Amino acid sequence: MTRVPVMAGKKRRGPGRIILNIVLVLIVLAWTVPTLGVLVTSFRDSRDIFSSGWWTIFPHKAWSKIGEIQVEEGISLDDQIVLDGKSATFAEWREGIETSKGRRLKWYGNKRTRMVEVFERKWVGFSANLTLENYKNVLAAGEITFKDAEGKEISRMGQNFVDAVLNSLAVTIPSTVIPILIAAFAAYAFAWMEFPGRKSLFVVVVALLVVPLQIALIPVLRDYTRLNLNGSFLGMWLAHTGFGLPLAIYLLFNYISQLPRDIFESAFIDGATPFQVFVRLVLPLSVPALASFAIFQFLWVWNDYLIALIFLGDKNRVVTSALAAMVGEKGQDWHLLTSGAFLSMILPLCVFFALQRYFVRGLMAGSVKG
Questions:
Q1: 53 near 44, Cβ under 8 Å?
Q2: pTM of the model
Q3: pLDDT of 8 strictly over 50
């Protein structure tokens, strides 16, 4: 009697699995490191931002001054200058030269000082000079002041980012809720109700997924101008609802159509109307799909710049328009740009992490039948 070997324990990881994990780690780092840089920079003092990189707040090796060398008066500065066994011109000493002893010599000031500073690489501990002043200046509406790397005081007008955030919320929340409600009704009807032209209408909805929204902007803008909707929040809600409905209906249809038929039959036998079935059964059971689309729609509307620029303009400036204006007006003020950028990231991140447990289930809706 032959024995069949039984595989015990986990399978050994092959080289392909290891390479895949390495690639995934690199991708995560490629996305995380810049975000960390924006976060750290947004809290740093303006003078520190202009003089050093954001990574310098962490422990690292840096050139630290350990002494000075006074050049004798008899040494000509127009010829080669020999210091610590190194020969170089005055211009080269001003740039800084490393010696064989691991030190760095750099001429201080002009020729009249006749002084050379000596630096040596030493470990510098965690040195975080963090402040909330950058966020206050971005959120403010009046005049703001800060200092550059040379200590000069610079005056700017605040970006009034609070109004931009409130305007974005006024656009994004209704533009997320309205398409979800309409799409849920439509998906339920396409999945479980019989009516003339059901399949043809669903084909039209799917076909609208491949239509670029850019080709509809000008005709919609002309209609908005005639209806006096241009520059209003209502116009933005209608535009985002129309552009987001095809994907919402398709995504929710895939999920709702896979719900067990038995629960619908039992509900109809008990005398429930289609509306009652939708409210009491379909909506509670479709939470993963609804949350998944809510994440997509919220992020698309919050990060939208084109539609807001065309239909809303500067009358009610949203976050993306405010950031674009900051790049043009304050392109050299990194501390303000990074603070504004991170303010625009906080709310979408909160929405994603709050709904992420439904995200995968919603994406897999209707992909597997069983």
A1: no
A2: 0.71
A3: no
